[in-house]
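tmp note - Nicotinate phosphoribosyltransferase
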Amino acid sequence: MPHTPPLIHSLLDTDLYKFTMLQVVLHQFPAAHGEYEFKCRNHPDTPLTQLKQQLEAQLDHLCRLRFSQDELDYLRGLRFIKSDFVDYLELFHLQRRFIDVTEEGDQLAIRIKGPMVQAMFFEIFVLSIVNELYFRPLDTVEVRSEGVRRLEDKIATLQRFRAEEAAGQRFPLLIADFGTRRRFSRDWQEHVVERLNGTLPEIFRGTSNVHLARKLGITPIGTMAHEFFQAFQALGVRLRDFQTAALESWVQEYRGDLGIALTDVVGMDAFLADFDLYFAKLFDGLRHDSGDPYVWGEKAIAHYRKLRIDPASKMLTFSDGLSVDRALQLHRHFSPHIQVSFGIGTHFTNDMGLEPLQIVLKLVSCNGQPVAKLSDSPGKTMCSDETFLAYLRQVFRISSPR
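out:
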């Protein structure tokens, strides 16, 4: 098997929300212990077990990386990143002993177990490495040409929208790259982001990838992920109160910054039951990541109106398996009533004419207790303990899927 050169060159080559969540963990529950499990939701043509040896070597390299002084200075310049957190990152490196790769039949098993200040930082790196190792043998001139053709078609579609419809819209179309975890390769993601930034300055608002944001001088985008909320299911608060505890923790850390809240850890209805006037005023908006986006968005608008908050003062961010066409449809539907933005992942960074991998690396346990996400989309729920899952459904009065 030929040697694969290192795929991750910088610890900034991850999504912004890893830093924003890590800062809260370090400041508010530094002793928390997390366990994460890898899952591939589709059936790739080549078994992922064939990547094991290369993946092990890539992880060895990843765990030798440190933040450079220039990278630390960049982080220190972000308004919401605190000085003591950057001091911590100056000493930081990932510990190899916390991640284990094995084979279970024809499945690749990746497990991360360790303090959350370490464990949570592996996810994006691992997913992007698995993706690039899988697609590297398929990386041909023909595949790249098809990727370029598709990207240019997307840019042309967005340019047509800008020329023909944008002036008539109440709120502007805002799109960001959210594709690090599912990218075809590191250099392809950079090409995509450069092209979008260069050709669509009024529409393209940034990237979740901190390294690319720094390198290209654009805005890094992101707030929180499901794991942040899930951890609070095991952090000593009453289970029924875990969402309000997580939201309050975020408010105390960022005090008005990073104000887009994720809604689908136990479903939109259960989230809105906890998202009272206090939080609705403090947070700038909500992020959709599962379930029917139209139903979700209408519920959000109705909730703001019920609280006598003008929906036009808030933002809905959509990030669930979006394409450019889907984003435009949602924008046309919602922008007369509320600000909208879109985080597009695989459709930007891995649309090459090949079937993408549907891989995730999810928190399944915190402090020795099971945690879960009850997704609004079938197949996205992930939990290793059916008893806890049933209890969580009971607490939040969510019926079991048929």
